[in-house]
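Take one protein record:
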Amino acid sequence: WRSPTAKYHHVLNLTGAFNRLEPLAYTALFSLLIEMIGLFAGATIFNRGLSCLYIFLHFLGTIMVGLFVEQVGQ
């Protein structure tokens, strides 16, 4: 005998993953918005410190995405 939801077990697991990742998706969209405002306002062109901060944050973001992809692939 199998539970009626047994064949949907993988879908239920994905729903939990989506619920955990949803705040990260909103944070990424907010970060993108801030970056676009800074880019089109010219703040990153004329402010060397802010430009270095953007480069550093892009580096950290790339490392984090790489680690995420590696962990999901295992």
